Input
Amino acid sequence: VQLVESGGGLVQPGGSLRLSCAASGFMLGLVGMSWSRQAPGKERELVASVSSTGSTTTYADSVKGRFTISRDNAKNTVYLQMNSLKPEDTAVYYCHGFGAWGQGTQVTVSS
Output
């Protein structure tokens, strides 16, 4: 079971990024998936979750209306579209589900 995130980087405030999480070793469509983040000196925060079929999504209040979680079960991939990014969104973002965690991808929001 392996999860590999990609798509992080440096972006200016107000900008957008799309994170991807590619799964291998299991059928992504059978399980719910989530994105969490951890900023330096802070506890890990659950950002967004999506049900196995994609019909149900939940978001942390801090990202509601700006982030969108989605999935493509045919591609075994989960996405996190992040719009209107703020400096406080700076963190390492992790994809997780089925008891597995990815290695994380750094997102830095700075001018």
User: Anything to note?
Assistant: DSSP finds no helices and eleven strands in the chain. Residues 47 and 62 are 8 Å apart (CA to CA). The chain has a mean pLDDT of 95.
